[in-house]
Amino acid sequence: MSAANAANGPTAVGRLGTILMYVATLGVLFVFAVELINVLFYDPYADEHFLFTTAGMLQDVDIKELTYIMFGSLLVMLMMGLPLAFVTGGLGVVFIYLIGGQVMVNIIPSRIFPMMTNSDLAAIPLFIFMASMLERAGLIEEMFDVIYQWMGGLRGGLAAATIIASTILAAMVGVIGAAVVTMGIIALPAMLKRNYDPQIAIGSIMAGGTLGILIPPSILAILYAVVAQQSVGELYLGSLVPGLMLSGMYVAYVLIRTWLDPKKGPAVPVEERISLGAKFKLLLKLIAPLILVVLVLGLLFAGIATPVEAAGIGSFGAIIVAIMHGRFNLVALREASVSTVKASAMVLWIIFGASIFVGFYILQGGQAFINDAILGTGLSPYGILFLMMVLLVILGMFLDWVGILLLAVPIFVPIIKSLTFDGLFGMPPVPGDKVALWFGVIYLVNMQMSFLSPPFGYALFYIRGVAPDSISMATIFKSSLVFLALQALGLLLCILIPGIVTWLPSLVYG
Predict the structure, then answer these.
(1) Which of 161, 323, 349, 468 suits a disulfide with 147, CB 3.0-4.6 Å?
(2) Residue 212: Cβ within 10 Å count
């Protein structure tokens, strides 16, 4: 009898949970139906309503309590597995109605329309299409093969080649998931076949793949520039040196580690290496895509083309490169177009939803409340910056990069602009007119860390999807730790030496 009760216990609990879910759903639908009748048939300026109304029921709630309610509801919805794009927008509309009624719902178009008319956002689908077309043209495999042949003779050369290829790929793609997965499919089997230490092999792929957040043409940098009202060209220039610096740090670590312990990254056997002349012939394969990248970024950095114009040239150039490599056909064009539409729709829906949610929160006094809460801690400007960095890393464990940007940056940037950073340990201060730019690049470096941070970093699960079953999740976690430390070091250098970020934009734009 006891065994039967034990067997029926979980079933009874499951049935009870299902019943409660049905009851809650019916309750929500009933409230929705009543409010729909109120909206359609009753005057919003009168006191009459059908049965009851929830409009304005939270209008007297203090901003502190409203903060807990709004962001607590957001956290619960996300933990239930609901998509961020619809959660933020849906909750935004619900809270607008609960606080201001149907009259205040009219502010929603005023939040969305400025985003829809921002021309810089048009660069996002164009850069995504450029990346999709180059990927389907088979250029990533060719690029890795070229760098693999050049560096395979070094200890740790394959891992270093992976990082260098990922750096070039970041300048072509700017989409993190695609870079990590693609390099995982191409480079990981090659390194494991050569008996590379799995932690070095996996870590180099993940760290190199996350460079797409930082190195132009980063999609995230465009979004930050739009939200923080910064120049896309300046932000691209500011992120270029830190991106190359981190790439160099990854390569240096791999080469030094394998030089100290050759078993962790053995060189390719002499009989499998090719001649110097053959290596130079292989470089011909990279001429067209590299010219395309240099052309797009050069036009953008020189101020000759806007981000949208440069992205348009890049998209057209990607098609030309695919034709030159004999990889262009209608199937590739259709697949690239479909993937572009899917990725762009995801980004834009999150933009619209988060703009409604955060915009309304700020309108209710949320910005002043957060300002007072952070500034009231008594921390120094650098202490406040450190607090923000910790919060961003924590958010990065649960949210995707677009959601973090649209939820946190509109609140953080005004606070950062109000602070003065005089330099630490005798280092130069941050110029007042470059603070938002400097913070933007630091934010991008931080987002790289969030992608590698166990236990929920996105790159960890991207590589899990393509790694062989012999590689455990614990090994993947361990692989990220050293490169995570290098990213933290890069972040610290950008904070201590702001010229790493501001020197190139100041040189070009004056």
Answers:
(1) 161
(2) 30
Q: For residues 202 and 476, is the Cβ–Cβ distance under 8 A?
A: yes
Q: How far apart are CA 206 and CA 190, in angstroms?
A: 15
Residue 133, class by beta-carbon neighbours within 10 Å (0-12 exposed, 13-18 middle, 19+ buried)? buried
Mean pLDDT value of segment 81-91: 80
User: Could you tell me the two tokens for 266?
Assistant: 């053995």
Query: Average of pLDDT values for 100-106?
Result: 76
* Cα–Cα distance for residue pair 253/264, rounded to 1 Å: 12
Q: At what angle do helices 366-375 and 381-396 cross, to 10 degrees?
A: 120
pTM above 0.85, yes or no: no
Find the radius of gyration of the CA atoms of the chain: 26
Alpha helices, H only, 80-138: 84-104, 108-116, 123-136
- The C-alpha atoms of residue 440 and residue 383 are separated, in whole angstroms, by 17
Residue 481 is which amino acid? L
The angle subtended at Cα 73 by Cα 450 and Cα 29, nearest 5°, is 135
Question: What span, in angstroms and rounded, lies between the C-alpha atoms of 384 and 374?
Answer: 7
CB 217 within 8 A of CB 171: yes
pLDDT of residue 139: 72
Question: Has residue 252 got a pLDDT over 90?
Answer: yes
CA distance 138 to 231: 33
Q: Which residue has the higher pLDDT, 496 or 342?
A: 496
With CA atoms as reference, report the closest residue to 377 among 385, 428, 448, 69: 385
